[in-house]
Amino acid sequence: MVKVHVSFGLHTFTRAIKADDPPGDDYSDNREKRCFDYERYRHSHRLPTIVREIPTSRKLYFSRTRSGLINYATFDTGEGKTYAVFFDVMLYKSRGPNTVLLTVESAYEFAETKRDTREGRIRFSADRSRSARHKAHPPAARTLEKQKPHC
Questions:
Q1: What would the DSSP string read from start to end of 32-90?
Q2: In a domain, 32, yes or no
Q3: By residue range, what is the domain housing residue 67?
Q4: How far apart are CA 54 and CA 71, in angstroms?
Q5: Closest Cα to residue 18, out of 44, 37, 1?
Q6: In the prediction, which pLDDT does 74 show?
Q7: What is the per-residue pLDDT across 7-30, written as a single tens digit (0 to 9) for each?
Q8: Residue 100 in domain
Q9: Does a structural domain hold residue 147?
Q10: Exposed e or buried b per residue across 13-41, where buried means at least 16 C-beta atoms within 10 angstroms of its C-beta
Q11: Is residue 91 part of a domain?
């Protein structure tokens, strides 16, 4: 049996900063500064359920990126769009034998014009447990109820 811990990265609810973004939407960690993305944030609430479903009901793929190989799965948003969840899995030796850390690196709606990046299929089968690396919060200067998304 393999024990799986899960963490969620900053890219699951932020995107690259654009020149016309208000500074109040900046969101950063110790590595980078990005813009809080209200649409990604809205979809990110589904990520724990999506991760739980990965081993049993999802087709998983890998694709080459600038930094190496990345695993991902795609899902129907229920709104006629495709939501892609990009993740990495590595041994988590500090948590014990047969333990891995699944990090959801990024998640967003696929643009319809984006090329199909599936290069191969992978398999995933394990018992699951969760721990969060990042907890997303809207920027302090705005609230989701009062502000129309513009990111």
A1: -EEEE-HHHHHHHTTHHHHHHHHHHH--EEEEEETTEEEEEEEEE-SSS-EEEEEEEEE
A2: yes
A3: 3-128
A4: 11
A5: 37
A6: 82
A7: 999 999 999 999 999 888 898 888
A8: yes
A9: no
A10: bbbebeeebeeebebeeeeeebbbbbebb
A11: yes
CA 64 to chain centre: 17
The 3-state secondary structure of 102-148 reads EEEEEEEECCCCCCCCCCEEECCCCEECCCCCCCCCCCCCCCCCCCC
DSSP-derived secondary structure letter, 95: G
Quote the CA–CA distance of 35 and 16 in Å, as a whole number: 6
Residue corresponding to tokens 């359920």? 49
Please report, in angstroms and rounded to a whole number, the separation of the first and last CA atoms in the chain: 42
Answer for the pair 48, 55: CB distance below 8 angstroms, yes or no. no
Model's pTM, two decimal places?
Answer: 0.70
60-65 β-sheet, strand order: 120-122, 60-65, 68-76, 82-91, 99-109, 3-11, 127-128
Structural domain count of the chain: 1
Site of tokens 């690259």: 16
